[in-house]
Amino acid sequence: MFQAASRAMSQVFEPPFRAIFWKMLGFTLAILVVIWIVLQGLVAGFVELPYAWLETALSILTGIGAIFALGFLIAPISALFAGLFQDDIADIVESRDYPGDRPGKALPIAQSIGHTIKFTGVVILGNLFALVLLLVPGINLIAFFAVNGYLLGREFFEFAAMRFMPAEEARALRKARGGTVFLGGMVIAALLAVPILNLVTPIFATIFMMHLYKRLASGSAI
Asked: CA–CA separation, 218 vs 30, rounded Å?
């Protein structure tokens, strides 16, 4: 497993995946800029204060609040766009690392969109847990890794498996190898917990789970 994780992390920064990351980041920043402009416009258009210094103070506080809000939104929005590139990432992994194997099939568009939305929800949930559990001493890290280890492992492994088998069989395989998939999810959760580096989490997790699925499917030791 850790060999697969190490391989995935080294591949994240290789040109084909780096190109996808820059696209994902560009889309994410564009959305964040739009949100920023809308927030500033709402404050300027609907809030009127009697004193100029109050308006200045409100503008500063709004700006600070927006920075924190947008910082929270970076990971979920990048995850949304990364989900649109998941099949591209998987295709690159297969062509470069498993050229002799039967190629997987991209998910149908409706299923792909549903999976992307579902995955984005998982990332939002994970980030909310990260924020809330920071305030709960003793259980914060344990709960964060346990919840996200399960959710992230499930979503990414089933995505990889569904390229080669029906969804029902993918879920059955995930349950049969639940311990391994959960530990893989914990590895992903560890990356998600690191600010800035968590931007590459969707790409890393897709590559990692492709390698992990291939090892499980071939019967290799994990």
From this structure: 42
